Amino acid sequence: MQKRHIPITVVVCLLLAVALAGYLLPATAQKLPVRILFHNNGGRVIFSHLRHHRNYEIACVQCHHETKTEHDRQQAAKAEPVPCGSCHPASFDQDYIAEHVNSFPDKSYCVKCHHAEFGELAFDHEAHKEYAFDDCQACHHGPDIEDEPGHCNQCHDLAGDEYMPSLRDAAHKRCATCHDDMFDKGIKGCSPCHRMKDMTNYSGSYTPCQQCHRTPNPDRELVLTRTNAFHDQCMNCHRDLQKGPYGENDCDKCHIR
Questions:
Q1: Which of 94, 119, 100 shows the shortest CA–CA distance to 207?
Q2: Quick one: DSSP state of residue 64?
Q3: Domains (ranges, CATH) in the chain?
């Protein structure tokens, strides 16, 4: 090989090595996605994440809305915003139920949804006898169901079925006849009877949402699906700004038919 060909050969080999390394090595994950493609029945949507964040200078917390207090905002500044799909699934199928916990960086995020677990029940039976003037049937069934008043769990178990209400449902239904003011407060009305656990250091299993959230607003889902969450968040923002897609006939401004 002539000497003048040696530099050319070296350069070609280096270029081939760089090309091969670039082809084989995985691409570095983008810290902030430039665009996100959503597949749905209404037509695919290309959402420009970087434009909304950088060009429009929209703060992360305006869309990633898990930060409601100053403490939360300080904590969020130290971590990456949680992706929308971590909470808002495409559909509430078994895969979501089994895998959604893995979407979060650590267990501290659990208490954002599982915000209450109850400890020991504070119920003064003797005091209630006085309130009812020793009329046991104010709480217990009459002789047509049980000869003498007994413990509720003699018949009602934790699960219940179509023939027998669960212990929780039976007790709540009976308690609500006197304490409807507590039940009107929702979960805030639980504390007079239930001892709340400190959820910041909680490590047990979590009660399903529907155990407490039995009567949500019929116009609002307890946790929105991803489609409804985006429509709710995005369209409200555009409606407030009076810019971009937000009207009933503006679907084609986001969706590609």
A1: 119
A2: S
A3: 36-115+216-256 (3.90.10.10), 121-196 (3.90.10.10)
Running DSSP on this structure, what letter comes out for residue 55?
I
93-100 contact pairs (CB < 8 A, 24+): none
Q: How far apart are the first and last CA of the chain?
A: 60
The secondary structure of residue 189, as a DSSP letter, is: G
How does pLDDT run along the chain (257 residues), one tens digit per residue? 566 677 778 778 888 888 877 767 665 555 678 898 988 888 899 999 989 988 988 888 888 876 555 555 555 555 667 778 878 888 888 888 777 877 777 777 788 788 888 888 888 989 998 888 888 988 899 888 888 888 888 889 888 888 899 888 899 988 998 998 998 888 788 888 888 888 888 888 888 777 777 655 656 677 888 888 889 889 999 999 898 888 888 999 999 97
Among 42, 43, 45, 82, which Cα is nearest to 61's?
82
Say whether pTM exceeds 0.70.
Answer: no
Q: Which residues of 8-35 are buried (b: 16+ CB within 10 A; e: fewer)?
A: eeeeeeeeeeeeeeeeeeeeeeeeeeee
